[in-house]
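Lecture 7 notes: from sequence to structure.
We start with the chain below.
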Amino acid sequence: MQRYDGFEVKLFFDKDDNWGAVIADLPTLSAFGDTPEKALEELDVVWGMYKECLDDSGESLPTPSQQFSGQLSVRIDKRYHRALAEEAEQAGISLNALVAQKIYLSTPIEPERRVR
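Predicted structure tokens for the same chain:
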């Protein structure tokens, strides 16, 4: 069995210099500590209490949301495909690397540390 029954856990550092750990699909389930390890230890306690409450009330654990593999298949106009392939060749990189680079540069996201 996985530590959090398949739910994704996000670790973050807050403005008060504490580490936080939160169950991504259940944001009210969170804990804090001086280190990432301590935040996870505290989250273990919170998780256990949450599951106990579900058992006591006869409720079942919700299903975790979809997990993403990092692989993406996209259909595009063949003219764009050719132009991207030529650009990748000129840059000396793979088409996959070029497309990933373009996505990274156009889609800013907050860096996260994730734990399973």
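Points to note: DSSP finds three helices and four strands in the chain. Strands lie at 9-13, 19-23, 26-33, 113-115.
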